[in-house]
Structures are given as C-alpha cells and as structure tokens.
Amino acid sequence: MPTILVYASRRLDDSAGSLARIEAAxxxxxxxxxxxxxxxxxxxxxxxxxxxxxxAVARCFLRIAVSPLHEDIRVISLAARDARLYGDWSMxxxxxxxxxxxxxxxxxxxxxxxxxxxxxxxxxxxxTLCD
Length: 131
Fold this sequence. Notes:
Elements: E1 3-11, H1 16-33, E2 36-41, E3 45-52, H2 54-65, E4 70-80, E5 92-95, H3 103-112, H4 115-129
Parallel strand pairs: 2-5
Antiparallel strand pairs: 1-3, 1-4, 2-3
C-alpha cells in the first residue's frame, strides 16, 4: 500500500532553468527510489504529490525540506492509499500558470479544509490540473 504525501511551498526561484533542474533531479532520484507523482507550479507556488513506499517518501521529503528552492513548506495530506494516482510518472511537472483559480488559491482552499477531506480534494485538484 503506497504512502501519498501532498505538500505546498512558496517557490523562490521562478526561472525556467531552476524548474528544469528540479525536473531532471526528481525524475532521476524518484526512479531510483521507486517514487512517482506530480509537481504543479506557477511563478510563486509549488504543489507536489509524492507516492511510494513510506520510508522512500519520508527520505525524499527530508531532501525537499532542506532545499533552497522554496520555503514555507506545508503538508496538506499524508495517507496510505490502495493505489497510486501517477504510477507511470517518476515526476510529472505541470504548469498551472494562468489557471482559474490560481494555484495559491487552491492551496489556501486545501489547507482550510478539515484534515480528513484534504487527500480526496488534493486528488481532484491534481487530476483537474494535470489534464
């Protein structure tokens, strides 16, 4: 049963080069560690879903927590699930720029929900934005 972690953070470097480095490192390290997921971004916000074996998700999140690329990291949900949402993607990176509502507004809405509702709502947000 995979562990699914969803977190949001404030993006510090909005350059295309920074995003390309994140995507390359994530794809390499996640494939090595058996992780899958998606990273949504706009110029100010990251919203990421990580899926995999619990210890691998925890190790990856520790690397993320000390990264200088973002700050104000907030865990939205952490749960065991029956199946992965993104089993084929070592890390899909999707721009949410210009979407309505904006990514920061979606994060605020997710964080305002009761904890028990966050995982299902995060799933819906990812599925909508990754289309």
